[in-house]
């Protein structure tokens, strides 16, 4: 069908007695809000399809802030997000809904999103997949930081040295230790997006929280407030 786009529903909420407002991430159109009329009716063929983590072909019409959904069909079954992994996947959805401008195409980020869902669906530990996605998201948002060179001297970072992060500047060699301090070895792991040790994962998580904070503002993420099963980490 002409005009179909690959999409995922990030979030939905009731509208009137029978409809839904959908927050959608589209491969060609980016993030947008759609009105799905009658989707909550008992006999609606859309009721089971408009779920997060289900790849969809979608089509809509109309201009303005809320076009109307005219067609939706699953491309495949939804990616299974079992127990504690579900919270991590919900975090990814909320992150996109919070930081992406509407009606701005992010076709490569769409593929990164599809990849992180696939990784999470198979993961025992969600953290490496989440860190890679957060770093990819920052890159697509235009966040450009050199992890491999000291911003002060221009020299390559040294594994055993420590570097303090300075916003909009980069990492500068320093003996002072704090929340913004990273070792050269940790920075190399972040740059390569390869996390082979718990220390590297903790450093990557600390950095992405620092870097994403200006995009998220002061409002907390709802997915972080959800119940975290004992003994498990959502990776957020």
From TrEMBL:
GO biological process: one example: DNA recombination
GO CC terms in record: bacterial nucleoid
Residue intervals of the DNA replication/recombination mediator RecO N-terminal domain: 5-76
UniProt xrefs under InterPro entries: ARFGAP/RecO (IPR037278), DNA_rep/recomb_RecO_N (IPR022572), NA-bd_OB-fold (IPR012340), RecO (IPR003717), RecO_C (IPR042242)
Assigned keywords, A-Z: DNA damage, DNA recombination, DNA repair
Matches recorded under NCBIfam families: reco (TIGR00613)
Family label: Belongs to the RecO family.
Biological role stated in the UniProt entry: Involved in DNA repair and RecF pathway recombination.
Family annotation (HAMAP family): RecO (MF_00201)
Record protein name field: DNA repair protein RecO
Protein species of origin: Photobacterium lutimaris
Gene that encodes the chain: recO
């Amino acid at each position: 069908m002409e005009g179909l786009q690959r999409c995922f529903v990030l979030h939905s909420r009731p509208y009137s007695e029978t409809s839904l407002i959908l927050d959608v991430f589209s491969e060609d159109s980016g993030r947008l809000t759609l009105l799905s009329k009658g989707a909550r009716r008992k006999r609606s063929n859309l009721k089971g399809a408009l779920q997060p983590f289900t790849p969809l072909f979608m089509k809509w019409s109309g201009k303005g802030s809320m076009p109307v959904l005219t067609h939706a069909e699953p491309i495949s079954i939804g990616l299974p997000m079992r127990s504690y992994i579900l919270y991590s996947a919900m975090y990814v959805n909320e992150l996109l809904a919070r930081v992406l401008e509407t009606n701005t195409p992010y076709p490569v980020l769409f593929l990164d999103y599809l990849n992180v869902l696939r990784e999470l669906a198979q993961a025992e530990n969600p953290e490496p997949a989440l860190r890679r996605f957060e770093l990819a998201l920052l890159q697509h948002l235009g966040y450009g930081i050199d992890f491999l060179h000291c911003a002060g001297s221009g020299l390559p970072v040294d594994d055993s040295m420590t570097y303090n992060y300075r916003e909009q500047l980069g990492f500068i060699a320093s003996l002072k230790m704090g929340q913004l301090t990273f070792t050269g070895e940790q920075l190399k792991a972040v740059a390569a997006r390869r996390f082979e040790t718990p220390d590297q994962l903790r450093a990557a998580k600390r950095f992405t929280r620092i870097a994403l904070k200006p995009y998220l503002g002061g409002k907390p993420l709802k997915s972080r407030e959800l119940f975290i099963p004992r003994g498990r980490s959502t990776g957020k």
